[in-house]
Amino acid sequence: MTTAPRAPRVVQPPPAPVLRPRVVARAGLYVFLAAHAAAVAVLFAQGGFASNALIVLGRLAGLYGALFMAFQLLLVARLPWLDRRIGMDRLTSWHRWTGFGVLWTLLAHVVFVTFGYARGSGLDPLNQLVDLAETVEGVLRALVALALLVVIGGVSARAARRRMAYETWHFVHLYAYVAVVLAFTHQIAAGTSFTSSAWGTAYWYALWGGALGAVFAGRVALPLWRNGRHRLRVTAVVPENDHVVSVYLTGRDLDRLPARAGQFFLWRFLTRDRWWQANPFSLSAAPDGRTLRLTVKTAGDGTAGIRRIEPGTRVFAEGPYGAFTALHRTRPDALLIAGGVGVTPIRALLEELDGHAVVVYRVTADRDAVLYGELRDLAAAKGAELHLVTGPPVPDRLAPAELARLVPDLADRDVFLCGPPPMMNAVLGSLRTLGVPGPQIHFERFSLAG
């Protein structure tokens, strides 16, 4: 373990108490969902009730399945206001669990409606389902949509997801948009709350239009507009060691790109063999309005090829994304903990943060400490403390006692954490043991597939 010399500490007054951005955004989503759940209940009641209780339950389940589907689209629309306050990792996780809610409510819709009509017709449930598909407009389309959702739900299970390449998983999930369109047309044709009143028709058109419009705006229109405006291109590819390279980019009007230290982009390098690959990499230097930099560790053939990218290559970048920024600070002082190549957003944050900072950089050996020279120089310039913690993963060098020794005032600091999942889980456990309040702990798991 090596430690940079301790610099004089500059004490700043604590920030004025304000509502935390993440709390505001979460509350907004909860209120949105609760308000729409109440609206759906009112529209359902106005549409009248069938005499068969199973059909009533089935119709209600279908309506809430449609609401959850629209809410699910909102969660992955990548709207900047939500993403900066909650983070893509948490929004993606909520999207995943909402997806299972969609699947179960729509399955309940089919089962209850089928058994309800079978009770009145005398048909067995299977023949009743076939009869509904043949005689009721939109039912066959709804069954196709449900089949697609079952497949998507299957590949979203963790056991299946671990065995599947991200590109394959993403391609399968594109069929969710087909399922949304099919389900919507079924609702138009057969939904009682949709057809029973002008208010119901207007509500559902507005809900679906808003959800699909948010997806189009956040995932298509905004990235196209930003890339057309900024026209990013590679200026240099600089090896940091045998396995890590830094890519420098420039473009037009980068001072108007709303990127902050700690955020990441989905980068597409527009070469013949890479244009179709979108990789999430964090900024490894705070944006200065003139250049951007990302630092990449080789983790397969795709990332290995970045070393061979030529200067002048055009880049299509989606973002910036992520809530791992100083926007969420609650204390004047900070502790930054990095593991391995997770140092990239930490190094950028150190450059941007005000107040006294302690940086703990965990690596297996000194040679793995990417960007350590830059961290040392930044720490000296900003009056920060820097600790390089080396050694094998076991024993845990960032156990509670060791963290408390390195940073005695840990509980009075914001903690920003980024590194490999096992290391992050261990450190989060240490922070909880040491009593660090949850609102002071900031981390982001850089995973697009939940």
What does this structure look like?
With 450 residues, this protein is of the alpha/beta class. The protein has three domains: 2-16 and 325-443, Nucleotide-binding domain of ferredoxin-NADP reductase (FNR) module (Rossmann fold, 3-Layer(aba) Sandwich), CATH 3.40.50.80; 21-227; 231-321, Elongation Factor Tu (Ef-tu), domain 3, CATH 2.40.30. Helix content is 51%, strand content 15%. The chain contains 16 helices and twelve strands. The strands form three sheets. It has a six-stranded mixed β-sheet, sandwiched between helices. A three-stranded antiparallel β-sheet has the order 2-3-6, with no helix packed on it. Helix 1 (21-46) runs antiparallel to helix 2, helix 2 packs antiparallel against helix 4 and helix 4 packs across helix 5. The longest helix is centred in the N-terminal third of the chain and has 34 residues, at 88-121.
Shape: elongated
Total number of strands: 12
Using only C-alpha atoms, the radius of gyration works out to: 26 Å
Low-confidence region ranges: 4-14
User: What is the percent of helical residues?
Assistant: 40-55%
SSE order: EHHHHHHHHHHHEEEEEHEEHEHEHEHE
Approximately how much beta-strand content do the residues carry? 5-15%
Largest sheet: 6 strands, mixed
Q: Helix/strand-derived class?
A: alpha/beta
Q: How many separate helices?
A: 16
How do the strands of the widest beta sheet line up side by side? 1-10-9-8-11-12
Number of domains: 3
Q: Between the first and last Cα atoms, what is the distance in angstroms?
A: 35 Å
